[in-house]
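Quick one, tokens below:
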């Protein structure tokens, strides 16, 4: 008896489900245990996980070998997984051929079972004979109860068609839809001996007929009679049913209607039959032809209104992976990436995919050229390419529906034409109803009444030309393309202008105010879709600029850049490089480039824009000042603090005079200048300006406005430079929390606040929290902005500071050397970031025993700090403490004491007694005093430092290393009078 839980796992392609069920039944009747997906796996479960478990638990894998199987993704994966164990278990894979197929080389050497062309009895006998040699050595287990079919439900032999069969040929390229086919079968089989009616409905060209065909062929073993009826013209349905009556040898009645009645009576007495009414339009066209009894009726229709007759199942476009598979099966030269792009352009519509594949097959045009031409001349290609199995091409697929709709609801047609110019995204009904005065009749009157407008949308939905969404509706992109193409040029222009006017009227206000973001999120895809149509309208251009500002403010800088770059190119060509709107577009793109880390490009664009604005508009024009504020931010991100300060002071003065102190551009310039001052080490004026800007921003714009958050982040950095750790922590935590919630965790402002908060946490002795935040910030900065961006380097410098606080000397050295090298190259030797990294690295080198290198680096760093930042700046004091320790390690006691006393005095006055920098300085001075034999001074200072360090950092902290050294030296100088633990006890 097998040690595995199941004897056989049956692997098959979806289209071979009939064969899989027949084989599973035969195996079960022979006493084997079988696992089969359509019997044992519930809808919605993890298919990949179930397949892996089945392969693990089954003794053998039986593969239903067909062309479809070897082309399927999972079929190949299942066989490869089974092959992994083939060497351990001979005969584990059992290939069963049910149609002529060439086995791939990997499987060709296996002994296979060929059932091709056999009838049921012969196939069953061959199956039993083949498996006899591979039976378990002991009696097979009793078949487990479960989801396997009852004896009465024995599957028919899948290799033969029903006795009564009229169905169009199967589509050999049918792809995907396995889940939908399984659901359709489940619904039809749920009737328990009663008539079950199911309708497949959806957009023209979405593959309803193909799905019904595949169902009929795939599950033919479920039926004794399958009959296909073309229901597009209801008057012809009786004749097709009469042919079925003749096939059943029923006597003809005096009229066709009488013959149909006899047929319906015959079907009521039968079971296992399927009638397919293809392309039906109205339920009343089919209602009288439902036989009753224990059979199935399957309907395909564009109309969704079939609930009165039975169930309904919407057929949507293909999943992207299915469209890609369809295209690549037809065009083997099409690589996956290109197929994905083409599928997106085709909107995953099966008809469009089949038409594109047909055109490529017929013309041998390189797929990349087809994609290029499709994007440029979509409507012309929608009229080319023959498609087998579909009634018409994409350009004609909806012609009949449109003709009927024009007669029934002209306003709905107007609405459809208007929607064709928007994006293929949900269109809010309020966009139309709130601005009905901008529309032509009869849509104007209809739109003014919400109920009537909803009815017109219902008319579009009824013909599957649109899909309803909460508070709106949506069109497929190819429906839009065909509708636009059918309009006369004058009508195209008028409708496009109406679309732009509706969007302008619906603009929700300030795009940088988070209150308006939900409105802009709804409008954004439609504004971008109609953007070229509004280039001639000042209002349309301003709306597009507002969308770009919204994207940037909302934290989607990549989206802002992606929209802004082609827009700027287009407007330069249409409006000219010096047009005010072109210049405004350039300023917004400058900000986007900065935010995505392309700061050099942002600076180049910003300088050109500012130069043009000053020349064309004058230095005090609002657009000029906006351009200047953007350039200040670019200079800041490049670490060019002096240039940023010079431009910032001039811009701020002009903004206050021209626009007022509370104008958004003024506050933006002030926030940027605060950042420039902070990175120049001018922390006090930065704090004064930053506090004023933050207070004004909160009052005028609100606390969550991007400019307000930028001011808060800049002020946080200024407070760090002043050593005001607690104030920095309070402001930094608030700014970081708001930034993450409003702008997102990867936004420039959020990362700037996170870097400053990291430094504040170190200043508070919370090194572990600082390390966690610092690592996250650095990782995000490197990914979003690149390793050399100013904010990334800020995060790296802050993380080195946290690592020092944790005593992680080697990690500090590795990160510190990289940060210092990048800082010197990108920002220069005098930049705050460079000096932060150098100070931390000097301390790490001391801890690692490389005191000579630490002293050399420390002396250079302290010299730069004093010259650039002054003696009281936090970084200056940090560099002095690091140098003091290096000198103490080298035994330079006099120099250490001199520098240590001066540093400790400044630290305590500027930072306070418990600031980590003060404690580092005190530890260094304690060590120097011990080296000089000043035991009592060393003991007094050491005990105080020990107590404070334990309270600030906890009992295990890196300062203890130096206090322990001082204790040991002091003990020997005092004649060995010591019994306390010098590692953790008092000196």
């Amino acid at each position: 008896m097998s040690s595995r839980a199941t004897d056989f796992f049956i692997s098959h392609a979806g289209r071979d489900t009939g064969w899989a069920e027949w084989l599973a039944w035969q195996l079960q009747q022979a006493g084997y245990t079988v696992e089969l997906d359509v019997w044992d796996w519930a809808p919605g479960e993890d298919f990949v996980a179930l397949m892996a478990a089945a392969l693990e638990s089954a003794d053998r894998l039986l593969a239903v070998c067909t062309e479809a199987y070897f082309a399927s993704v999972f079929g190949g994966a299942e066989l490869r997984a089974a092959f992994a164990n083939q060497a351990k278990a001979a005969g584990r894979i059992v290939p069963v051929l049910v149609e002529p197929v060439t086995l791939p080389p990997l499987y060709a050497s296996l002994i296979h079972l060929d059932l091709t062309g056999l009838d049921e009895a012969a196939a069953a006998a061959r199956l039993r004979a083949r498996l006899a040699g591979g039976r378990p050595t002991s009696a097979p287990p009793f078949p487990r109860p479960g989801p396997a079919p009852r004896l009465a439900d024995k599957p028919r032999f899948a290799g033969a068609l029903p006795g009564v069969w009229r169905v169009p040929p199967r589509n050999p390229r049918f792809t995907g839809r396995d889940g939908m086919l399984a659901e359709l079968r489940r619904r039809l089989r749920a009737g328990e001996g009663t008539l079950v009616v199911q309708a497949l409905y959806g957009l023209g060209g979405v593959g309803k007929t193909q799905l019904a065909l595949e169902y009929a062929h795939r599950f033919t073993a479920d039926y004794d009679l399958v009959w296909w009826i073309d229901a597009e013209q209801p008057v012809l349905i009786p004749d097709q049913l009469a042919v079925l009556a003749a096939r059943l040898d029923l006597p003809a009645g005096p009229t066709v209607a009488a013959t149909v009645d006899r047929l319906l009576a015959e079907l009521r007495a039968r079971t296992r039959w399927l009638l397919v009414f293809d392309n039906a339009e109205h339920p009343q066209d089919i209602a009288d032809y439902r036989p009753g009894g224990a059979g199935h009726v399957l309907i395909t229709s564009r109309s969704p209104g079939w609930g009165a007759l039975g169930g309904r199942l919407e057929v949507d476009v293909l999943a992207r992976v299915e469209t890609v598979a369809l295209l690549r099966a037809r065009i083997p030269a099409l690589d996956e990436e290109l197929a994905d792009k083409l599928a997106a352009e085709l909107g995953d519509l099966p008809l469009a995919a089949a038409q594109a594949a047909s055109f490529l097959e017929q013309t041998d045009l390189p797929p990349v050229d087809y994609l290029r031409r499709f994007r440029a001349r979509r409507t012309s290609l929608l009229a080319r390419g023959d498609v087998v199995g579909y009634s018409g091409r994409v350009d004609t697929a909806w012609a009949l529906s449109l003709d009927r709709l024009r007669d029934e609801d002209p306003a709905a047609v107007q609405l459809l034409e208007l929607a064709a110019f928007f994006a293929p995204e949900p269109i809010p009904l309020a966009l139309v109803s709130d601005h009905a005065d901008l529309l032509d009749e009869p849509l104007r009157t209809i739109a003014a009444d919400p109920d009537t407008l909803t009815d017109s949308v219902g008319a579009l939905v009824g013909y599957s030309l649109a899909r309803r969404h909460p508070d709106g509706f949506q069109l497929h992109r190819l429906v839009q393309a065909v509708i636009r193409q059918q309009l006369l040029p004058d009508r195209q222009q008028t409708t496009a202008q109406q679309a732009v006017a509706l969007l302008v009227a619906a603009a929700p206000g300030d795009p940088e105010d988070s209150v308006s973001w939900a409105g802009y999120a709804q409008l954004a895809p439609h504004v971008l879709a109609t953007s070229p149509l509004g280039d001639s309208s000042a209002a349309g251009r301003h709306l597009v600029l507002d969308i770009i500002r919204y994207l940037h403010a909302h934290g989607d800088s990549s989206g802002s850049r992606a929209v802004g770059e082609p827009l700027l190119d287009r407007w330069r060509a249409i409006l000219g490089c010096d047009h005010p709107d072109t210049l405004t577009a350039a300023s917004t793109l400058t900000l986007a480039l900065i935010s995505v880390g392309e700061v050099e490009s942002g600076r180049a664009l910003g300088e050109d824009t500012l130069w043009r604005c000053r020349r064309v508009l004058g230095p005090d024009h609002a657009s000029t000042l906006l351009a200047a504020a953007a350039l200040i931010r670019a200079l800041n991100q490049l670490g060019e603090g002096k240039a940023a300060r010079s431009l910032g002071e001039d811009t701020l003065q002009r903004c206050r005079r021209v626009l007022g102190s509370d104008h958004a551009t003024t506050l933006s310039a002030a926030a940027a200048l605060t950042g420039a001052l902070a990175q120049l080490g001018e922390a006090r004026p930065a704090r004064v300006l930053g506090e004023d800007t933050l207070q004004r921003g909160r009052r005028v714009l609100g606390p969550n406005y991007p400019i307000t958050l930028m001011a808060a982040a800049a002020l946080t950095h200024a407070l760090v430079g002043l050593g005001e750790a607690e104030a920095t922590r309070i402001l930094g935590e608030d700014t970081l929390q708001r930034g993450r919630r409003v702008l997102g965790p990867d936004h420039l402002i959020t990362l700037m606040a996170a870097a400053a908060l990291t430094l504040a946490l170190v200043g508070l002795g919370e090194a572990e929290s600082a390390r966690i935040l610092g690592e996250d910030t650095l990782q995000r900065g490197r990914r979003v902005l690149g390793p050399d961006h100013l904010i990334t380097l800020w995060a790296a410098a802050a993380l080195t500071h946290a690592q020092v606080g944790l005593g992680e000397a080697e990690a500090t050295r590795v990160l510190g050397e990289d940060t210092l090298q990048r800082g010197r190259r990108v920002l220069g030797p005098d930049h705050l970031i460079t000096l932060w990294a150098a100070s931390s690295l000097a301390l790490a080198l001391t801890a690692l025993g490389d005191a000579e290198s630490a002293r050399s680096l420390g002396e250079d760093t302290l010299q730069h700090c004093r010259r650039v930042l002054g003696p009281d700046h936090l970084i200056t004091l940090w560099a002095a403490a690091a140098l003091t320790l290096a000198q103490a390690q080298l035994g330079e006691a006099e120099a250490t004491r001199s520098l240590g006393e001066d540093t400790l005095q400044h630290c305590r006055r500027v930072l306070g007694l418990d600031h980590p920098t003060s404690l580092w300085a005190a530890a260094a001075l304690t060590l120097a005093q011990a080296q000089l034999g000043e035991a009592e001074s060393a003991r007094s200072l050491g005990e105080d430092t020990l107590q404070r360090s334990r309270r600030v950092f906890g009992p295990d902290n890196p300062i203890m290393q130096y206090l322990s050294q001082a204790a040991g030296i002091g003990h020997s100088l005092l004649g060995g009078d010591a019994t306390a633990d010098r590692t953790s006890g008092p000196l």
